[in-house]
Design goal:
The chain has about 130 residues and is of the alpha+beta class. The protein has 2 domains: about 50 residues, no CATH class; about 70 residues, no CATH class. About 40% of the residues lie in helices and about 15% in strands. It contains 4 helices and 3 strands. Strands 1-2-3 form a 3-stranded antiparallel beta sheet. Strand 2 and strand 3 form a beta hairpin. Helix 2 runs antiparallel to helix 3.
Length: about 130
Amino acid sequence: MDKYKLNIIGYDDAFAIGDNASLPTAKSGVGAHLQAEVVADNLLGYEAKFNGRTFCPCISNDTASFVISDYDHPPVRVRCSRFKRLIEEVFIAGYWSFLKYPRMWRPLMETMFEATKPSVLGEIGW
């Protein structure tokens, strides 16, 4: 499997994402979502590549943290907080709306993922 294009080696039109992908990244819903966007863009004829991005929530009672990394950066240190738990609750509440109305929500999602890139957060954590 090509870890950037997400296609099965030898087949330009067969892809794998999420749990079906043999990738050196987390097997989370967010990871599968980001992988699906890459596959969709490739099917539409765009040159899209997956960077191994993870953004996995870790929830504990009333606080949350996230595991954030990509192929080029190890996991970023993320402290637990109630604010991050609120972010996760908003994401959960709005997820199906995000999918149903991508033109409205995709800019917000892209901004959030851009602001939380491992290269942006660096060693300062979040």
